[in-house]
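Structure tokens please, single chain.
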Amino acid sequence: MRCLLCAKLSLSFICRECREAIEVNPRLHNLRDLRAITFYDYDDIAPLTNAKYYPFGSFALKQLAIKAFKPFFSELKLDNKAALIPIDDRVGAWYSHSAVLAKFGAAGIVTPRFGRLRARSKDKYAGQTLAFRQSRPRRFVFKDFEERDAILLDDLITTGTTLLEAGETLEKNGKTALFAVALTRAQ
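Here you go.
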């Protein structure tokens, strides 16, 4: 196979040289009432995040999660244990990209809780405007989990509306969204 970034022959979807060259560059974003941290520059991983639409994309997402999320959560200090909630982790055509990120990125004091926030809306939000996203909320279905605190996880922040709606859904159900994490923010 070929590396998704440099196209050299490789035994992995991201060759070792490219995996080492991708810089983890944490950035804090304020989304109205929710802080979010992204870990990669969009241009550095765009081919990898776009691979999520193909069966092999889960391997690329796994590598990104291991490189950025796992060390972050291993070193995270919280007063209490927290749930790691992947946003709308329903399996699509091949797999759930947010579930892959949660499974391979979780460590330390956070525990992935799958199937806890699922969108009722069937709209496709990729590439849509802020007005479109605001006029068609996800309408999340909440399923309870034991932790009081939660960290939201998504692959990409475009406008922030999905994460804000997810945080509001948690709050309405007596949970606290501490912050959100995502691989990158769209430019």
